[in-house]
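User: Here's a structure from my thesis project, written as structure tokens. My advisor, Dr. K., wants to see whether a designed sequence matches the one we expressed. Can you design one independently, without my sequence as a hint?
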């Protein structure tokens, strides 16, 4: 299979939130797979997937983080795309708290709710059920996509919408979760939304996005996806909505700082006002970005050294897991046969190949025949999964946690 894409280059390097040209690149990972969720039956197909460069830059005016080399033509949202976290019991509990809060605070009962972008409609279904509301979901994908289904009669799907089509439907609540970070032109998105809300000033908005500042602070150097054009910080998310016609009623963080949220509503006074971010806040973000950069460089140097040592010693090395972090690790370091295979419990992934690197995914049972000398884990919690295969004494690999 040959993966063909149209190439688009950016003509200018400026912040997509505040338009400032005062940006500084602090992180680079070149030729990374565009879609890390995909695994491929054939190794050749996995090796030839579309790739793009990631150069994360920090805006000195609003604290926004974005990929200066992002190419929107590389990113396609097809039937495979999945951004729902609703299968997690922790996320289900969090979603219930958010829905209850919005319903109680804004009297959202038997009202009209729009959700933009969250493909599985989990939250939309929840808030419609709890408040007896009517919902309309606008999602990427085609109308005949079997994943775009709902059992709730109060929810309607509209597919493959672009531009201002979603804003023409008036609503009492507009939700956007896990979608804003993918939008190549967020200023246009927000200004269009505000324009088409018009004088319906009682409309409430709820926006949720991954916390870019939280990611910097937790040093999540292997948890970056090309699909995410933007990494919003609390300051840049507020700036985006204030600069384009909204009032921020409330801002917060959730899930141990992994996400940031804002409640917003349209305003009519002084729509040309521009938010200025506190200099101390910007300096704090800049320091975190520099620390993130140094941490990533140290990790890359260390693991390149270890991989070279194992290859020279002809040691058999296996990586545990086939998710985003493992994919990123393999591709950022351009890992070759110095790692033999990737092990995953998920039956659906076995026999498939990692996008970009081409590594084959095998079952944990294969460890007994592979007899690895080294087992590399991306997450300390994976030690409990590994233990049954090492406790019996059949295997005694060196276990390293990235």
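Assistant: Designed independently from the structure alone:
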């Amino acid at each position: 299979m040959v993966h063909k894409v149209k190439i688009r280059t950016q003509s200018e390097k400026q912040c997509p939130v505040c338009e400032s040209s005062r940006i500084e690149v602090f992180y680079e990972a070149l030729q990374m797979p565009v879609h890390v969720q995909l695994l491929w039956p054939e190794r050749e197909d996995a090796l030839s997937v579309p790739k793009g460069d990631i150069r994360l830059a920090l805006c000195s005016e609003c604290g926004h983080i974005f990929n200066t080399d992002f190419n929107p033509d590389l990113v396609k949202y097809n039937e495979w795309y999945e951004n729902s976290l609703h299968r997690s019991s922790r996320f289900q509990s969090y979603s219930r708290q958010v829905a209850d809060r919005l319903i109680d605070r804004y009297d959202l009962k038997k009202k009209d709710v729009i959700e933009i972008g969250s493909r599985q409609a989990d939250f939309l279904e929840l808030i419609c059920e709890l408040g007896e509301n009517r919902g309309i979901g606008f999602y990427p994908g085609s109308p005949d996509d079997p994943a775009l289904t709902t059992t709730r009669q109060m929810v309607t799907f509209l597919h493959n919408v672009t531009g201002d089509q979603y804003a023409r439907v008036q609503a009492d609540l507009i939700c956007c979760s896990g979608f804003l970070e993918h939008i190549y032109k967020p200023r246009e998105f927000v200004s269009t939304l505000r324009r088409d809300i018009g004088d319906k000033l009682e409309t409430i908005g709820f926006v949720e996005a991954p916390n870019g500042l939280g990611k910097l602070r937790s040093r999540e150097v292997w948890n970056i996806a090309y699909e995410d054009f933007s990494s919003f910080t609390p300051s840049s998310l507020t700036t985006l909505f204030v600069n384009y016609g909204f009032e921020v009623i409330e801002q917060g963080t959730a899930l141990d700082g992994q996400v940031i949220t804002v409640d917003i509503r349209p305003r009519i006074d002084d729509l040309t006002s521009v938010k200025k971010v506190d200099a101390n806040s910007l300096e704090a973000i800049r320091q975190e970005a520099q620390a993130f950069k140094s941490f990533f460089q140290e990790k890359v140097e260390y693991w390149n050294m270890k991989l070279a040592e194992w290859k020279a010693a002809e040691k058999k090395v296996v990586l545990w897991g086939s998710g985003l972090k493992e994919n990123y690790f393999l591709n950022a370091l351009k890992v070759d046969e110095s790692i033999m295979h990737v092990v995953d419990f998920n039956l659906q992934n076995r026999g498939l190949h990692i996008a970009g690197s081409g590594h084959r995914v095998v079952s944990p049972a294969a460890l007994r025949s592979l007899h690895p000398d080294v087992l590399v884990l991306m997450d300390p919690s994976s030690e409990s999964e590994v233990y049954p295969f090492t406790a019996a004494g059949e295997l005694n690999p060196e276990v390293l946690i990235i």
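When you compare it with your expressed construct, this may help: Residues 79 and 123 are 20 Å apart (CA to CA).
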